[in-house]
Amino acid sequence: MALDGKTAVVTGAARGIGYAYCRRLAADGAHVVAVDIEDPADGVRQLTGTGDKLGLVCDISEPAQVDTVVGTVLDRYGRCDILVNNAGVFPFTDLDHVTIELWRTVQAVNVEAILLFAQAFAPGMRAAGWGRIVNTGSGITLTQNRDLAYLTSKGTVHALTRALANELGESGVTVNAIAPGLVATEGFLGRARTNGPSAEEVIARTTAVQTIKRHSVPADLGNALAFLVSDDADFITGQILHVDGGVTRTGA
Ligand code: NAP
Known about the structure:
15% strand; seven-stranded parallel β-sheet; binds NADP nicotinamide-adenine-dinucleotide phosphate; Rossmann fold; alpha/beta
Protein backbone atom coordinates (compact mmCIF):
# COMPACT_ATOMS: atom_id res chain seq x y z
CA MET A 1 0.00 0.00 0.00
CA ALA A 2 1.20 3.49 -0.87
CA LEU A 3 1.08 4.78 2.71
CA ASP A 4 2.08 1.67 4.66
CA GLY A 5 3.78 2.61 7.92
CA LYS A 6 2.91 6.30 7.63
CA THR A 7 0.94 8.02 10.37
CA ALA A 8 -1.70 10.55 9.32
CA VAL A 9 -3.51 13.00 11.59
CA VAL A 10 -6.74 14.51 10.25
CA THR A 11 -8.70 17.25 12.02
CA GLY A 12 -12.43 17.72 11.60
CA ALA A 13 -12.54 14.01 10.90
CA ALA A 14 -15.91 12.94 12.29
CA ARG A 15 -17.83 13.78 9.15
CA GLY A 16 -17.81 15.54 5.79
CA ILE A 17 -14.60 16.17 3.92
CA GLY A 18 -12.43 15.20 6.90
CA TYR A 19 -14.03 11.78 7.11
CA ALA A 20 -13.51 11.28 3.37
CA TYR A 21 -9.84 12.10 3.95
CA CYS A 22 -9.68 9.45 6.69
CA ARG A 23 -11.32 6.86 4.47
CA ARG A 24 -8.84 7.45 1.67
CA LEU A 25 -5.75 7.55 3.89
CA ALA A 26 -6.82 4.37 5.68
CA ALA A 27 -7.59 2.60 2.41
CA ASP A 28 -4.12 3.56 1.19
CA GLY A 29 -2.58 1.87 4.23
CA ALA A 30 -1.80 4.73 6.65
CA HIS A 31 -2.31 4.67 10.39
CA VAL A 32 -5.11 7.22 10.77
CA VAL A 33 -5.71 9.46 13.76
CA ALA A 34 -9.12 11.11 13.42
CA VAL A 35 -9.45 14.26 15.53
CA ASP A 36 -12.73 16.08 16.06
CA ILE A 37 -14.66 18.09 18.63
CA GLU A 38 -17.35 15.41 18.24
CA ASP A 39 -16.40 11.83 19.09
CA PRO A 40 -15.23 10.31 15.77
CA ALA A 41 -15.38 6.74 17.10
CA ASP A 42 -18.33 5.55 14.97
CA GLY A 43 -16.68 6.56 11.73
CA VAL A 44 -13.28 5.28 12.81
CA ARG A 45 -14.75 1.81 13.40
CA GLN A 46 -15.90 1.72 9.77
CA LEU A 47 -12.53 2.60 8.23
CA THR A 48 -10.93 -0.10 6.11
CA GLY A 49 -7.23 -0.72 5.47
CA THR A 50 -4.45 -2.45 7.34
CA GLY A 51 -3.18 0.49 9.39
CA ASP A 52 -4.04 1.39 12.95
CA LYS A 53 -7.07 3.62 13.51
CA LEU A 54 -7.56 5.99 16.41
CA GLY A 55 -10.25 8.57 17.18
CA LEU A 56 -9.50 11.47 19.51
CA VAL A 57 -11.86 14.14 20.82
CA CYS A 58 -10.30 17.60 20.76
CA ASP A 59 -11.42 21.19 20.41
CA ILE A 60 -8.57 22.34 18.19
CA SER A 61 -9.14 25.98 19.16
CA GLU A 62 -7.82 25.07 22.64
CA PRO A 63 -4.00 24.84 22.64
CA ALA A 64 -3.95 22.58 25.72
CA GLN A 65 -6.23 20.08 23.97
CA VAL A 66 -4.03 20.18 20.88
CA ASP A 67 -1.02 19.45 23.11
CA THR A 68 -2.80 16.38 24.47
CA VAL A 69 -3.49 15.06 20.97
CA VAL A 70 0.10 15.68 19.91
CA GLY A 71 1.39 13.85 22.99
CA THR A 72 -0.87 10.87 22.30
CA VAL A 73 0.24 10.65 18.66
CA LEU A 74 3.95 10.94 19.48
CA ASP A 75 3.72 8.38 22.30
CA ARG A 76 1.93 5.88 20.11
CA TYR A 77 3.54 6.35 16.69
CA GLY A 78 6.73 8.34 17.32
CA ARG A 79 5.83 11.03 14.81
CA CYS A 80 3.15 12.30 12.44
CA ASP A 81 4.10 11.90 8.76
CA ILE A 82 0.96 13.37 7.20
CA LEU A 83 -0.88 16.25 8.82
CA VAL A 84 -4.25 17.16 7.31
CA ASN A 85 -5.58 20.39 8.78
CA ASN A 86 -9.18 20.16 7.72
CA ALA A 87 -11.47 21.25 10.57
CA GLY A 88 -13.21 24.51 9.88
CA VAL A 89 -16.17 26.53 11.01
CA PHE A 90 -18.15 28.70 8.66
CA PRO A 91 -20.80 30.84 10.35
CA PHE A 92 -22.35 33.69 8.36
CA THR A 93 -20.29 36.75 9.24
CA ASP A 94 -21.02 39.77 7.09
CA LEU A 95 -19.88 43.22 8.20
CA ASP A 96 -23.15 44.08 9.94
CA HIS A 97 -23.34 40.89 11.96
CA VAL A 98 -19.83 39.70 12.71
CA THR A 99 -18.72 40.13 16.32
CA ILE A 100 -15.15 40.17 17.52
CA GLU A 101 -15.83 36.99 19.51
CA LEU A 102 -17.09 35.16 16.42
CA TRP A 103 -14.18 36.52 14.37
CA ARG A 104 -11.71 35.15 16.93
CA THR A 105 -13.40 31.75 17.05
CA VAL A 106 -13.19 31.43 13.28
CA GLN A 107 -9.51 32.40 13.27
CA ALA A 108 -8.73 30.05 16.17
CA VAL A 109 -10.27 26.99 14.50
CA ASN A 110 -9.53 27.72 10.84
CA VAL A 111 -6.06 29.30 11.15
CA GLU A 112 -4.39 29.12 14.56
CA ALA A 113 -4.87 25.37 14.97
CA ILE A 114 -2.89 24.85 11.77
CA LEU A 115 0.02 26.67 13.32
CA LEU A 116 -0.22 24.67 16.56
CA PHE A 117 -0.29 21.28 14.83
CA ALA A 118 2.42 22.24 12.32
CA GLN A 119 4.73 23.50 15.07
CA ALA A 120 4.24 20.31 17.02
CA PHE A 121 4.74 17.83 14.17
CA ALA A 122 7.25 19.62 11.92
CA PRO A 123 10.32 18.67 14.00
CA GLY A 124 9.57 14.95 13.53
CA MET A 125 8.96 15.43 9.80
CA ARG A 126 12.23 17.37 9.47
CA ALA A 127 14.13 14.67 11.33
CA ALA A 128 12.61 11.98 9.09
CA GLY A 129 13.36 14.01 5.95
CA TRP A 130 9.81 13.38 4.76
CA GLY A 131 6.47 14.91 5.59
CA ARG A 132 3.23 16.14 4.13
CA ILE A 133 1.06 18.94 5.44
CA VAL A 134 -2.19 19.53 3.61
CA ASN A 135 -4.43 22.37 4.71
CA THR A 136 -8.02 23.02 3.73
CA GLY A 137 -8.46 26.37 2.06
CA SER A 138 -11.44 27.45 0.03
CA GLY A 139 -12.39 28.74 -3.37
CA ILE A 140 -14.44 31.34 -1.51
CA THR A 141 -11.37 33.57 -1.45
CA LEU A 142 -11.87 34.19 -5.18
CA THR A 143 -15.57 35.04 -4.97
CA GLN A 144 -17.75 38.01 -4.02
CA ASN A 145 -18.93 36.27 -0.85
CA ARG A 146 -19.38 38.52 2.21
CA ASP A 147 -18.57 36.09 5.00
CA LEU A 148 -15.86 38.37 6.38
CA ALA A 149 -14.41 36.15 9.08
CA TYR A 150 -14.55 32.97 7.03
CA LEU A 151 -13.19 34.45 3.81
CA THR A 152 -10.37 36.16 5.71
CA SER A 153 -9.53 32.95 7.54
CA LYS A 154 -9.27 30.96 4.33
CA GLY A 155 -7.17 33.65 2.65
CA THR A 156 -4.89 33.39 5.66
CA VAL A 157 -4.82 29.59 5.34
CA HIS A 158 -3.58 30.00 1.77
CA ALA A 159 -0.87 32.45 2.89
CA LEU A 160 0.10 30.27 5.85
CA THR A 161 0.38 27.30 3.50
CA ARG A 162 2.94 29.18 1.41
CA ALA A 163 4.83 30.40 4.49
CA LEU A 164 5.05 26.88 5.94
CA ALA A 165 6.16 25.55 2.56
CA ASN A 166 8.98 28.13 2.57
CA GLU A 167 10.03 26.96 6.03
CA LEU A 168 9.98 23.25 5.39
CA GLY A 169 10.91 22.75 1.74
CA GLU A 170 14.54 21.98 2.39
CA SER A 171 13.60 19.15 4.75
CA GLY A 172 11.63 17.01 2.31
CA VAL A 173 8.37 18.29 3.74
CA THR A 174 5.75 19.65 1.35
CA VAL A 175 2.93 21.94 2.39
CA ASN A 176 -0.07 22.50 0.15
CA ALA A 177 -3.73 23.42 0.48
CA ILE A 178 -6.78 21.88 -1.12
CA ALA A 179 -9.43 24.49 -1.87
CA PRO A 180 -12.85 22.85 -2.30
CA GLY A 181 -15.65 24.51 -4.18
CA LEU A 182 -19.10 23.78 -2.80
CA VAL A 183 -19.57 20.38 -1.18
CA ALA A 184 -22.99 19.54 0.27
CA THR A 185 -21.67 18.30 3.61
CA GLU A 186 -23.61 18.30 6.87
CA GLY A 187 -21.67 21.40 7.83
CA PHE A 188 -22.74 23.29 4.73
CA LEU A 189 -26.36 22.07 4.80
CA GLY A 190 -26.70 22.78 8.52
CA ARG A 191 -25.69 26.44 8.35
CA ALA A 192 -28.30 28.75 9.81
CA ARG A 193 -29.76 30.87 7.02
CA THR A 194 -31.76 33.89 8.06
CA ASN A 195 -32.05 35.39 4.60
CA GLY A 196 -30.75 34.85 1.10
CA PRO A 197 -31.00 31.73 -1.02
CA SER A 198 -31.55 28.26 0.41
CA ALA A 199 -28.79 25.66 0.49
CA GLU A 200 -30.44 23.89 -2.44
CA GLU A 201 -30.48 27.10 -4.49
CA VAL A 202 -26.81 27.76 -3.72
CA ILE A 203 -25.90 24.22 -4.77
CA ALA A 204 -27.89 24.51 -8.00
CA ARG A 205 -26.38 27.90 -8.88
CA THR A 206 -22.86 26.75 -8.14
CA THR A 207 -23.23 23.56 -10.15
CA ALA A 208 -24.56 25.60 -13.07
CA VAL A 209 -21.39 27.73 -13.24
CA GLN A 210 -18.99 24.81 -12.81
CA THR A 211 -17.26 23.52 -15.92
CA ILE A 212 -18.02 19.98 -14.74
CA LYS A 213 -21.74 19.98 -14.07
CA ARG A 214 -22.17 17.60 -11.18
CA HIS A 215 -22.23 18.15 -7.43
CA SER A 216 -18.88 17.87 -5.71
CA VAL A 217 -18.64 15.00 -3.23
CA PRO A 218 -16.14 14.61 -0.37
CA ALA A 219 -14.37 11.77 -2.21
CA ASP A 220 -13.30 14.33 -4.86
CA LEU A 221 -11.18 15.97 -2.18
CA GLY A 222 -9.94 12.59 -0.96
CA ASN A 223 -8.62 11.84 -4.44
CA ALA A 224 -6.69 15.11 -4.49
CA LEU A 225 -5.32 14.43 -1.02
CA ALA A 226 -4.11 10.99 -2.05
CA PHE A 227 -2.03 12.61 -4.79
CA LEU A 228 -0.61 15.42 -2.65
CA VAL A 229 0.57 13.04 0.09
CA SER A 230 2.10 10.61 -2.41
CA ASP A 231 5.72 10.54 -3.56
CA ASP A 232 4.44 11.50 -7.02
CA ALA A 233 3.81 14.98 -5.58
CA ASP A 234 7.23 15.42 -3.99
CA PHE A 235 8.09 18.43 -6.20
CA ILE A 236 4.84 20.27 -5.43
CA THR A 237 4.75 22.64 -2.48
CA GLY A 238 3.20 25.95 -1.50
CA GLN A 239 0.31 25.38 -3.89
CA ILE A 240 -3.41 25.96 -3.54
CA LEU A 241 -5.15 23.18 -5.46
CA HIS A 242 -8.69 24.15 -6.38
CA VAL A 243 -10.84 21.02 -6.56
CA ASP A 244 -14.13 22.53 -7.65
CA GLY A 245 -15.24 21.29 -11.05
CA GLY A 246 -13.77 24.42 -12.62
CA VAL A 247 -15.93 26.95 -10.80
CA THR A 248 -13.11 29.32 -9.89
CA ARG A 249 -12.37 29.95 -13.54
CA THR A 250 -15.67 31.83 -13.72
CA GLY A 251 -15.10 33.93 -10.63
CA ALA A 252 -18.67 33.03 -9.67
P1 NAP B 1 -18.32 19.85 8.42
O1 NAP B 1 -19.26 18.93 7.74
O2 NAP B 1 -18.88 20.89 9.31
O3 NAP B 1 -17.20 19.00 9.19
C1 NAP B 1 -16.24 19.68 9.92
C2 NAP B 1 -15.93 18.90 11.19
O4 NAP B 1 -15.00 19.70 11.97
C3 NAP B 1 -17.17 18.68 12.05
O5 NAP B 1 -17.18 17.37 12.56
C4 NAP B 1 -16.96 19.71 13.14
O6 NAP B 1 -17.58 19.38 14.38
C5 NAP B 1 -15.46 19.70 13.29
N1 NAP B 1 -15.01 20.86 14.06
C6 NAP B 1 -15.55 22.10 14.10
N2 NAP B 1 -14.92 22.86 15.00
C7 NAP B 1 -13.96 22.09 15.54
C8 NAP B 1 -13.00 22.30 16.56
N3 NAP B 1 -12.92 23.48 17.21
N4 NAP B 1 -12.18 21.29 16.90
C9 NAP B 1 -12.26 20.10 16.27
N5 NAP B 1 -13.17 19.83 15.31
C10 NAP B 1 -14.01 20.81 14.96
O7 NAP B 1 -17.44 20.67 7.33
P2 NAP B 1 -16.95 20.29 5.85
O8 NAP B 1 -17.93 20.87 4.90
O9 NAP B 1 -16.59 18.87 5.76
O10 NAP B 1 -15.66 21.21 5.75
C11 NAP B 1 -14.37 20.73 6.04
C12 NAP B 1 -13.36 21.80 5.66
O11 NAP B 1 -13.54 22.16 4.29
C13 NAP B 1 -13.52 23.11 6.46
O12 NAP B 1 -12.24 23.67 6.70
C14 NAP B 1 -14.28 24.00 5.50
O13 NAP B 1 -14.06 25.36 5.75
C15 NAP B 1 -13.69 23.55 4.18
N6 NAP B 1 -14.52 23.85 3.03
C16 NAP B 1 -15.77 23.29 2.92
C17 NAP B 1 -16.54 23.60 1.80
C18 NAP B 1 -17.91 23.02 1.61
O14 NAP B 1 -18.60 23.45 0.66
N7 NAP B 1 -18.37 22.08 2.45
C19 NAP B 1 -16.04 24.47 0.81
C20 NAP B 1 -14.77 25.01 0.96
C21 NAP B 1 -14.01 24.69 2.07
P3 NAP B 1 -19.11 19.89 14.67
O15 NAP B 1 -19.96 18.82 14.12
O16 NAP B 1 -19.23 20.00 16.15
O17 NAP B 1 -19.26 21.21 13.99
